[in-house]
Design a protein that fits this description.
Largest sheet: 5 strands, antiparallel
Helix content: under 10%
Number of strands: 30
Distance between the termini: 34 Å
Number of helices: 1
Strand order of the largest sheet: 1-8-7-6-5
Structural class: mainly beta
Shape: globular
Length: 425
């Protein structure tokens, strides 16, 4: 039985070998298995009225003289790798990383320890912040990093940025220090309470509603923006100190309530990002953006009576390309909301059923629904991969570096869940 015993909570996966599900099972029949058995040989063809002579065959292997069982195969070490170039998107498959997870997870991300090259999945849950080392082999277990509620997280270099605690503080956690097994982790099993001292709260960030991170490709600077009920906090990454430093706090802000959209736009000739707080219908298939320009106090958001549309996904993909997912369509527009037409890829993709989130991959868009997931080609608009299982509920937990998915039984949503990563994206 799994038990959470704060301040140290260690959870063991229920599966005997969590990586045995790295190929699609009956639960996901539509994703082809990478290690499927070879196809049978083709029948001989007729050439000029005759049958090709059969190819020489190897002699049969000699049978064993004794009845002893064959020697066991060596243990397969789990790895998380990207497919080689040229692999088709149809070969995308799921890899189970944890079975029987009792946590109520809100968000997830990944981090690679540069010293050990081990890959960690970081989970923000109602029960706290947890880490899962994918290179532990068969002994896969979760360990608690921070015992406070976590609703959002993002990894920048070796720093974890999160919204944590009952009051929703913006926090910074040093991932190298909390995973240093040679330090104070030697006190007891797992993480000691002193490790929580490696998490610090950003001043005046109580009641943080939403956060976003943006990198300016023109200046190669990285920014963190956080919204509270009446202010916006702007921070900039300072490489020598390996941390975000406060640039400015914009007080007495009038933000939409509820704040459903808070996404950064990076614009040429602007030092700081522009924050989008609402999306409106435009002319035809175009959209309009309600924005806050952090570079000038003269262009604040001042239209609280507007009627924004429901946005499932809003993300800047390139310098002048954004994806906006609303209802059952995903649109590719420029920074002014004008639809971008291209002969190489579709400007609008439609999905059935309507997704609750979409993720853009290389040459395709992956949409997530309650009981299914579907990948569509940007070039042909055709479905190239799909999973449909009405007995399960799928939920996207994170897609920053690795796509992390939670699967629960539809007839018992309160039961423990299984966690997967999407290999091949």
């Amino acid at each position: 039985d799994l038990k959470l015993t704060p301040p140290i909570a260690r959870m063991q996966s229920h599966s005997d070998h969590t990586w045995e599900d790295s190929t699609p099972s009956a639960e996901h029949p539509n994703f082809p298995a990478p290690n499927a058995p070879p196809l049978p040989p083709k029948p001989p063809t007729m050439i000029g009225g005759s049958v090709d002579p059969p190819k020489p065959q190897l002699p049969p292997r000699p049978t064993r003289q004794d009845d002893s069982p064959p020697p066991p195969l060596p243990e397969r070490k789990p790895t998380v790798t990207r497919p080689a170039r040229g692999v088709q998107q149809q070969q995308t498959c799921f890899s189970k990383i944890f079975s029987g997870c009792p946590l109520n997870i809100n968000c997830a991300s990944s981090w690679i320890d540069s010293s050990s090259r081990s890959q960690h999945i970081l989970l923000g849950a109602e029960e706290g912040l947890y880490t899962l080392n994918l290179n532990q082999g068969m002994d896969v277990a979760m360990e608690q990093v921070y015992p406070r509620r976590c609703t959002w997280l993002f990894v920048v270099h070796n720093v974890l940025v999160s919204i944590s605690g009952a009051a929703g503080h913006l926090c910074m956690t040093n991932l190298v220090q909390i995973h240093d097994k040679g330090g104070d982790a030697a006190v007891g099993h797992g993480f000691s309470r002193r490790r929580f001292s490696h998490t610090t709260k950003v001043p005046d960030s109580r009641g943080c509603l939403k956060c976003c991170v943006a990198r300016n490709p023109y200046s190669d600077q990285q920014y963190l923006c956080a919204a509270t009920a009446r202010s916006i906090i702007l921070m900039q990454w300072y490489e020598p100190m390996q941390k975000f430093m406060l640039v400015k706090t914009f007080e007495s802000m009038q933000l939409p309530s509820p704040l459903n959209v808070f996404e950064p736009f990076v614009v040429r000739n602007e030092e700081y990002p522009i924050i989008c707080v609402a999306v409106l219908d435009g002319d035809g298939d175009n959209v309009a953006f309600e924005t806050i320009n952090l570079n000038s106090s003269a262009s604040w958001y001042q239209n609280p009576d507007s009627h924004p549309i429901s946005v499932k996904t809003l993300c800047q993909l390139e310098k002048d390309t954004l994806v906006v997912a609303t209802d059952n369509v995903a649109k590719f527009v420029n920074l002014h909301g004008v639809l971008k037409s291209s002969a190489r890829q579709a400007a609008i993709l439609s999905f059935d059923p309507p997704p609750y989130h979409v993720v853009c991959l290389q040459g395709s868009v992956l949409s997530f629904h309650k009981h299914s997931m579907q990948a569509k080609s940007l070039a042909t608009r055709q479905v190239i991969a799909q999973v449909t299982d009405p007995t399960r509920i799928f939920r996207l937990l994170g897609s920053d570096r690795v796509i992390i998915i939670e699967s629960r039984m539809a007839d018992d949503p309160a039961a423990a869940s299984n966690l997967y990563i999407l290999a091949g994206n």
